Amino acid sequence: MAAYLIVDTKISNPEEYETYKAQARPIVEKFGGIYRARGGEMDTFESDLWTPTRIVIVEFPDMQTARNFVNSEEYAPIKKIRRANAECTFLLVDGI
After folding, report:
1. Less Cβ around it within 10 Å: N or C end of the chain?
2. What distance in Å separates the CA atoms of residue 53 and residue 9, rounded to the nearest whole number?
């Protein structure tokens, strides 16, 4: 069953964040991830719990593969770039 990595990102350094995006994509794809949304146009109709900033949705084959990506040695140094240049909410949801 598919799993979805959902990330809400508030970018503080757009130039360095481009480095993150370029380096993260091939690792995401190596783990079978497919970008379904990546910071495109967004309408917020209700925001009782949180007000999203920039949403990224990545579909993975399953929860374990997504966890393997998030915790991988390949992604660890790239994650540092993201954390240095943006604030994020980073969550994983099991698909149906």
Report:
1. C
2. 6
First to last CA, the chain: 7
Check: pTM over 0.90? Answer yes or no.
Answer: yes
Domains of the chain plus CATH, in order, are: 3-41+53-94 (3.30.70.100)
**CA–CA distance, 24 with 7 (Å, rounded to integer):** 13
Short-list 17, 15, 35, CA closest to 25: 35
- Look-up of token digits 């990545």: 58
Do 93 and 4 form a contact (C-beta atoms < 8 A)? yes
Residue pLDDT, tens place only, 43-60: 999 999 999 999 999 999
User: Residue 8 in contact with residue 88, Cβ under 8 Å?
Assistant: yes
Q: Which candidate, 43, 75, 77, places its Cα nearest to that of 58?
A: 75
Instruction: Give me 92's structure tokens.
Output: 């994983």
How many alpha carbons fall within 13 Å on the CB side of residue 28? 21
